[in-house]
Specification:
Order of helices and strands: HHHHHHHHEEEEEEEEEEEEEE
Number of helices: 8
Largest sheet: 5 strands, parallel
Oligomer: single chain
Strand order of the largest sheet: 1-4-7-10-13
Strand content: 5-15%
């Protein structure tokens, strides 16, 4: 039995598709994030030219990772890397709108430095936005590896295929799940435990829109669950905590879970 299992594992190992280790891919993204946001980096640059050279080095590193990925063997990896880094200014601009959203929306946030350095929501968004851009360039495997790495660090699960607008604010963040085909507008705020998921999990739905659309200026409070590809949360709506929602609501809606909470005063005996 042991020899049979050993042979099976060996055969499976021989058939694996080549891809760089997850740590290598995540380290590349981390270096890019630290370059974009010096608040996260211990390195000091002597000139703008040195910063530019670091961008070029990371571009070369991305090409090397793509070349080492079997699924990318027939791709023009230098062209893909170049296009990705040409998008760096826009990536940086959008991430700064996320910083602004957190700073303006959270009374506890004292500065941009604090948001960038300490907020798990911003950390997860950095990895998501890098992964999403790679996905738009049809890079396989790497985008999902990146978002799952951030998921493991923050508890925030954002599929790289989700489409998320500007000024996205994730408050606390732990337990948030955003599915592959979710569409989120601008100035949206999600609290911890929110799920934007599918009504059912069926492999036949792989090419269908399975996850909700959340329009601009929506707030979804903690532990709310919004399901279904046809479900649209209209702009300027508020979805209360613990709501379970499987159908669309019009713009300007206030949706809340009605519970009866009973508070009884206890009689406490004084201990003598």
């Amino acid at each position: 039995m042991t020899k049979k299992l050993s042979q099976h594992i060996f055969n499976k190992q021989q058939a694996l598709e080549d891809v760089p280790p997850n740590e290598t891919i995540a380290q590349w993204a981390s270096k890019l994030i630290c370059l974009l946001f010096p608040e996260l980096s211990a390195r000091d640059y002597d000139s703008a030219e040195e910063v530019d050279n670091t961008f070029k080095s990371l571009e070369t590193e991305l090409t090397s990772m793509l070349n080492a990925t079997k699924a990318c063997c027939d791709c023009n990896n230098e062209f893909i890397s170049n296009r990705f880094f040409n998008s760096a200014p826009e990536l940086y601009r959008i991430l700064n709108t996320d910083v602004e959203a957190i700073l303006n929306g959270d009374p506890a946030a004292k500065s941009e430095f604090e948001v960038i350095r300490a907020y798990p929501g911003f950390y997860a968004l950095c990895f998501y936005r890098i992964a999403h851009q790679l996905l738009l360039l049809e890079v396989p495997l790497l985008p999902r590896i990146l978002t799952e790495y951030a998921h493991s660090k923050t508890g925030i699960d954002i599929h790289p295929g989700a489409k998320i607008g500007e000024h996205f604010y994730v408050d606390h963040g732990t337990g948030i799940v955003i599915g592959e085909t979710a569409v989120i507008g601008n100035y949206v705020k999600l609290y911890q435990g929110v799920t934007l998921g599918a009504l059912s999990v069926d492999k036949s739905m792989v090419f269908m829109k399975r996850h909700p659309t959340v329009e601009d200026n929506v707030i979804i409070y903690s532990n709310a669950t919004v399901l279904g590809g046809d479900t649209i949360i209209g702009h300027n709506s508020i979805i209360g905590g613990n709501v379970w929602l499987t159908h669309s609501v019009p713009a300007g809606s206030f949706v809340y879970h009605n519970t009866n909470i009973i508070i009884e005063e206890r009689k406490i005996k004084n201990n003598v």
